[in-house]
Amino acid sequence: NQGISKERLGEYLGEEHTLNVEVLSAYTHLIDFKGLFLDDGLRKYLTYFQLPGESQKVDRIMQAFAEKYVLDCPEVFKSSTAAYSLSYLLMMLQTDAHNPQVKDKMKLHEFSNLARGVNEGDNLPQEVLNGLYERVIKTPLALHELDLAKKLCLLYTSDAADDLLCVDLGGRRIIKKNN
Description:
By secondary structure, the chain is mainly alpha-helical. It has helices at 6-14, 18-29, 38-45, 55-72, 80-98, 108-114, 126-138, 145-152; strands at residues 153-156, 164-169, 172-177. The longest helix has 19 residues, at 80-98. The model is unreliable at 148-179 (pLDDT under 50).
């Protein structure tokens, strides 16, 4: 819904009150993750709201996601705990890879080592981990709305037409005359 702030929705869904937890569960169960890789499921989930900053709220939201993901994709993980643990690891990888303040970026072998035994003591196939790693490095799981705006909007002026401003919004161009 365009009238609801994604930031406020994330804050609400992450609260520990009984009603908030019930709304989080019901909201999460409306989203279909069937046929999606874990990272694609997280990306889809996080398009509806912005993760709050408080770790306990993020934890509740990630648990709800993992429970629903395992219901929709029971062949992937042995438990929701496994999906939850790998989801958190993907969030760590995203932060590491896409935060310019992090200078020493996580390597594939480090990611794989952190994921060792994540599936109830069993390892996930290396090709699965490779795919997750490469996709998260290439495309973040979640973008705050301002970061999203920076990635989707290209503002420029032409030397030939200094009075024109072209804004590219994900393929939709708006050209207007500058004043």
